[in-house]
Amino acid sequence: MPGKTVVLGVAGGIAAYKACELLRLLQKQGMDVYVVMTRNACRFVAPLTFETLSGHPVAVDTFERPATWEVEHIALAKRADLFLIAPATANVIGKMACGIADDMLTTTVMATRAPVMIAPAMNTGMWENPATQQNIAALKARGVHVVAPATGHLACGDSGAGKLEDVQVIAGRAVQVLMRKRDMEGLRVMVTAGPTREALDPVRYISNRSSGKLGYAIARAAAQRGPQVALLTGPVAIEPPPGVHVVRFTTTQELLECAEAHVAGQDIVIQSAAPADYRAKTVAPRKIKKRDGEDMVLTLVENPDVAAALGEGKRADQTFVGFAAETNDVLEHAQAKMEKKRLDMIVANDVTAPGAGFDVDTNIVTLITRAGMTALPLLSKDEVAERILTAALALRARA
Ligand code: CTP
Questions:
Q1: Which one, of 83, 195, 189, 210, lies nearest residue 139 by Cα?
Q2: Residues near ligand 1 with C-beta < 6 Å?
Q3: 3-class secondary-structure state, position 161
Q4: pLDDT category of residue 74 using cuts at 50, 70 and 90
């Protein structure tokens, strides 16, 4: 990573001493490291240590030097290719999530346009506190990379999650982010995500367990690689990633309409949505009342197959990717769907496998194209997203 500059933010936790080793590891990769410390961090490690290791002055929350402060935090923010905060305390995470900038570290990170990565470290109770978890979720939704803390014996005597992740792992993640190529610049990508809802009456609907997590991860990963991204989303509980054009749908019919309106301008179309295959033949205008003792029969009619409909109009310069969530004969079913829907690639997964399926943060998938299959190991949904995009680009390069 020669020529890359990392601004290393050190917050006030006992794991601050590990930031010295982290700084060394980053330097070994050729990075130039500047350190910003909070006032409390200086109680754990003297700025002189970081100054000596980094070869640069350490920026601290010193209002005693108001003449340089204003300039310095902006200069550092601009200099960063990556802004890495390790350890990130509950307090700093909370401030970042709320947009509070009241010291050198929080001001500088707010001013930066570089990718931001945080490696939290704190007591288990603090880590698991809903306030921290909500703050982490908010930061992730804004594109902040989070290196989740490890589980183990903590300095406070507790055992549990909250230990700063191994510095080797943090340095590895930093390299990954810095190496991220803008290899989708100039392209237009459409991603569909989440379930649909098919109304039965004004208060009830048929839906499925799709969380939209993978689709959102794909949209987020794509946006960081440079293209224009349109995210067509069903009703889900996650914040859309920054920088993507969001279009919302509720029913399969609505998804079809908005997909058809957007598809012509797209280079890559990734259909991870889980549209309901059926809808109620009639939607009751009023709430359906319970019929004591009597069975209820619903008549369902088939919904359009959105992927198949888009496949009909697919141009040779477009790359279409679909998904097949299966419970049995996964690869056979997936291959058949790829042909039927005229997809260039289908991502097959067995939703019954541990670590795969709904509402988890990992997945085990096989990427199937006409050239062959690639079975991926258990990976985070973020990593699966990256692999899908890389495979889609490879298909375009081959075409
Ligand atoms: N799909 C679609 N429209 C539908 C159903 C599915 O566009 N009405 C798309 C999904 O977005 C996904 C792919 O088709 O990319 C496969 O979805 P899946 O539900 O696995 O396939 P189905 O064709 O519905 O087959 P089945 O439910 O019988 O397994």
A1: 83
A2: 252, 271, 273-275, 277, 303, 305-307, 322-325, 337, 341
A3: strand
A4: confident
Least confident of 201-205, 356-360, 388-392: 356-360
349 alpha carbon to ligand 1 midpoint, in Å? 13
Widest CA span of the chain, in angstroms?
A: 80
- Cβ atoms within 10 Å, residue 46: 13
In the chain, where are the structural domains located? 5-179, 188-398
42 is annotated as an active-site residue: no
As a whole number of angstroms, the distance between CA 44 and CA 50 comes to 12
CA angle 104, 108, 110 (to 5 degrees): 125
Question: For 76-131, what is each residue's pLDDT tens digit?
Answer: 899 999 999 999 999 999 999 999 999 999 999 999 999 999 999 999 999 999 99
Instruction: For 11-50, write each residue's pLDDT tens digit.
Output: 999 999 999 999 999 999 999 999 999 999 999 999 999 9
Fold of the CATH domain 188-398: Rossmann fold (3.40.50)
pTM as predicted? 0.71
CA of 346, closest atom in ligand 1: 15
β-pair partners for 308: none
- DSSP letter for each residue of 281-326: SS--SSPPPP-TT------EEEPP-HHHHHHHT--TT-EEEEEEEE
Instruction: Decide whether 5-179 matches 188-398 in CATH topology.
Output: yes
5-179 — its CATH code? 3.40.50.1950
C-alpha 318 to ligand 1 mean position (Å): 20
DSSP assigned state of 89: P
Distance 191 CA to ligand 1 centre (A): 15
3-state secondary structure of 214: helix
